[in-house]
Every structure is written in structure tokens, then in C-alpha cells.
Write a structure and sequence with these properties.
Largest sheet of chain A: none
Shape of chain A: elongated
Number of strands of chain A: 0
Structural class of chain A: mainly alpha
Helix content of chain A: 55-70%
Oligomer: homodimer
Largest interface: A-B, 40 and 40 residues
Strand content of chain A: under 5%
DNA sequence: ACATATACGCTACAGTACGTCTCGTAACAG
DNA sequence: CTGTTACGAGACGTACTGTAGCGTATATGT
């Protein structure tokens, strides 16, 4: 399987989520950008309505009335295509800084509530399965989707710590997992719903752990 | 350990993990039990070494030198076969009752540590993907794998509550998710390792939440 | 012994999706 | 006009799925 981008110095935009690079300048016929955008929104639409497994290269190509080969020119496989679509929509998330740890965390965690209500909610299980199969893809998702979210919460802890609000000697990474793990756990296994009340309670519980 | 038998009171044996029923009494040639056990251990072996996606009905049949049709006589699909294999191995877990909430929880959580080091660790992602696709399968996994684990922890909370050790007014289900969610989260996304130290810290943090 | 009933192995089949390849044609730069 | 690349269309080989039919093997019941 081909790598991501021949010249990914440090994650260039083209390298993100495994999209194949188009040649640098216009030499020869340029790529039709509408194909990219149409495909991505078709993927998101199918993800939202029917779920990961219903996304097929063939089906998407028919839906946007393009040749299958045009998709393979851009993404080496279905995994990469879906990853690209998801990353495109998730992008970055607002790193709230309200001065209150509680509010910062609540804001961060609520982005999970809304994200899981969208295409990502239905895509996640399939995506996770492909991540287990393709370490390159796993790296992309961790870096492009998870890392930004984790960083904004980590920063909130650092600010609170600087204000002297919380205990020292805390395993921040583990706290992050306890804060957000329950959401992933529930959305993937479906044993309990994800509610706004849940976001508040999780934050409340985490604050108790951190209280000095 | 295996809840596979022909005589489980509620929910017929056939329903458990989706194995197809053999006719009740020996009328005609009996099924060769070795096929069942060989197949299950072959599935677990492949899960452990190569992961979920490498498990195929065809491949397993070749590996145990049996006809594919013999597998289809027992399990309607790969999903059901894998679910059956996993449930057979996971079975029930020891519901510790040491008199100490901390020890009970540590014991319960450590079963996750070991479980995720085995075939389930590599199977989980694929299993989750199929659960998203097949609600019947999802029900089986939730009931046969998750429910028992959750119950034993829930019981530990109830005992501690009766001893007056912990706060009232606690959302037990959410606490369960905060206790175990981080393990699922890490094993599925691979952003951090699962260690014994982690099990102790998670329990420690949960106890802080519950402290009165 | 014989009939009945089921399991087994084998082969064939239709279906789906994947990813690769090759063409002729279209669109741009110099 | 030439070179270069993208597009659309189709064929191809591979892999696995799940179903069906058939002859053979192995049990039970009388």
C-alpha cells in the first residue's frame, strides 16, 4: 500500500489523513476540486445515515457520479478516505479558557457529546477496527483527531494547577482517560446513553479527584 | 466457564453467542465435538496472533482441516463465531469479596488488564465494529461479556455502601464507566499503555470520588 | 438387519467488494 | 502544438461471503 505523501516533511496538509498528493504545480490537467468535496460530503452523509460498513468506494463513486479510479487517485483505500472525511469535519476544537477549570472541562467534554451525535458517532466503531489493522491510519487518527482534544484539556489542567486550584502529583493522562474514556466506551458499546447530564457529572467527579 | 450448554434456563443455548442449535437428542449422526473445540481454539489463536480481520470462516476451516459447511452448520456468520469464541474464553469473572472496596475493585479491574493482554485485546476493535452493525450481536456481547463484569463491581459498591464507607447519591453506572472506560479507551485507540500501576491509580481516583 | 435421521466433506454457485491496470479522451502550461 | 496530468470506462484477478446439492458416514429405534 502506498504511503501517504512522498514529501511529508512534517505533516503537510496533503499528508493529513492519508490523502495522496497531487503534483505541485499545474502541469497537465488540474484535479477537479469538486470531486474532493463531493466525495467527502457523500462519505459523511453515508456515515451519518447508514454507518461505516455501508461506505464503499464503489457506492460513493456512483453516488457522486464519478469514476472509481478518480477516488483511488486521491486515497489509497477506504480507510484513508473515511479518515480524511472525518478529520476534515472534526478539524480542531475550541480550546476554551474561561478561567474556571470546571467550565473549561465542561466545554471540552461537550464537544464529545455533539461529535458523537454526528457522523463520527456512527463511524467510530469501524474506524477503530481499521486502526487496529493499519498502524499508519491509527497514527493519523490519534494525531489529527484525538491529540488536539486532549491537548486543550491538558492545558486547562495546567492553568488550574498554576492557579493552585488542584492537587499536585496527579497523573494527568489518566485523568484525561477517566474524563473522556466513558464517552468512547458508551458510544462504542451502547450500554448507556450519552447525555448532557453525564457531561456535568463526569466533570464533577473529576474535580473531586483533583480537589486539594 | 463456557455458557454454551444445551440447558441454560432462560435464553436457549442456541441463542447464546449465536451458536446454532443441534437437534435435541441423538437421532442421526451426532455432531463431532472436536470440531467445536478445534474451531474455537483456532479462532482464539488467530485473534491473538493476527487480529480480528484475519479471522475468516474459510481460513479457520482450512486450519482445522474441516469443511466450511461444518462451520456454517454451527454459526451463521463470522460475527457469531468470534462472539462465541470470545464468550467461551471470557466466561464469568470472579466476583471478589474481600471486605475491602479497594481490593474488590482492584481485583475486578485487573481482570481487564489480563483480558486485554489475551485474544480479546486484539479482537475487541473488530468486535466493536460488528456490534455497531448487528444489534443482535451487540446484545450478546453486552450481556455475556460486559454485564457480568459490571455486576461484580456494582455489587462491590453496594456492599461498601452498606458498610457506610462511601457517599450516598452516587451515579454508580457512571462510576463504573469511569473505572473501566479508560481501559477500553486505551486498548482501542492505543494512545497509552495499560499497566498494573494504572489499575491501582484508577481505583485510587475512584475512591476519592466516593469518599465521604 | 433395516429404516430413519442427521453430520460430514466436497464441489459448485452467485454475490460483493477490493485494488490494479489499460485505454481513449479532456484540460491545462509553455 | 507538445508534454503532462486528470478523467471516465471497463476488464481483471483476488478474497471472502453465504447457500445448495450430493454421496458417504455414524448414530438411534425397532
Amino acid at each position: 500500500m502506498s504511503k501517504v505523501d512522498a514529501k511529508s516533511g512534517i505533516g503537510t496538509a496533503a499528508a493529513v489523513a492519508g490523502r495522496l498528493a497531487a503534483p505541485e504545480h499545474g502541469l497537465g490537467r488540474p484535479r477537479d476540486e469538486r470531486i474532493d468535496t463531493d466525495v467527502v460530503s457523500a462519505v459523511l452523509s453515508v456515515l451519518r445515515s447508514k454507518g461505516y460498513r455501508e461506505v464503499t468506494i464503489d457506492g460513493i463513486a456512483r453516488k457522486v457520479r464519478r469514476a472509481r479510479t478518480s477516488l483511488y487517485r486521491r486515497w489509497p483505500s477506504k480507510r484513508h478516505l473515511v479518515a480524511y472525511a472525518v478529520v476534515s469535519e472534526m478539524g480542531d476544537n475550541p480550546a476554551a479558557d474561561t478561567g474556571s477549570l470546571r467550565k473549561d472541562l465542561e466545554a471540552a467534554v461537550e464537544t464529545l457529546l455533539t461529535a458523537f451525535a454526528g457522523p463520527l458517532g456512527r463511524a467510530l466503531a469501524g474506524l477503530v477496527a481499521d486502526m487496529a489493522q493499519d498502524s499508519e491510519l491509527a497514527e493519523i487518527i490519534r494525531n489529527e483527531v484525538l491529540a488536539a482534544r486532549r491537548k486543550s484539556m491538558r492545558d486547562a489542567f495546567i492553568r488550574a494547577s498554576a492557579r493552585g486550584e488542584i492537587k499536585a502529583d496527579i497523573n494527568t493522562e489518566l485523568i484525561l482517560d477517566m474524563l473522556t474514556g466513558p464517552f468512547y466506551y458508551r458510544v462504542l458499546f451502547g450500554h448507556a446513553p450519552i447525555t448532557r447530564r453525564m457531561t456535568q457529572e463526569v466533570v464533577e467527579y473529576v474535580l473531586r479527584i483533583l480537589a486539594r
